[in-house]
């Protein structure tokens, strides 16, 4: 299976990704020359981890008839000891008191099924190249 995403470079530090009828806009913060008009790519990367886990939590609850009102995920990032990059990501699944005790561990297991997380743990091979077009 093959799928494509078209990345286009805009003005300043803006770069967009187009796929499946959607456009994801990115920019850089003002302090590095961008306008701060959209999230930076790394923020979207981190958001993809949390939102993916959230989808699995939501699906888990929906399949068992558990209301999702009052459930939220809080994702915290910890720097590597060197101070450069992310060394640890913690996701706390906050549930209301009415959330069934018997599903507390199971909902964590559901969040751990996140495809984004699994791809980070078993990364794909990258092949970056230049292609001259007409």
Automatic annotation (TrEMBL):
Pfam families in UniProt: OsmC (PF02566)
Transmembrane segments: none
PANTHER family: OSMC-LIKE PROTEIN, PROTEIN INVOLVED IN RIMO-MEDIATED BETA-METHYLTHIOLATION OF RIBOSOMAL PROTEIN S12 YCAO
Protein name in the entry: Osmotically inducible protein C
Organism of origin: candidate division GN15 bacterium
Lineage: Bacteria, candidate division GN15
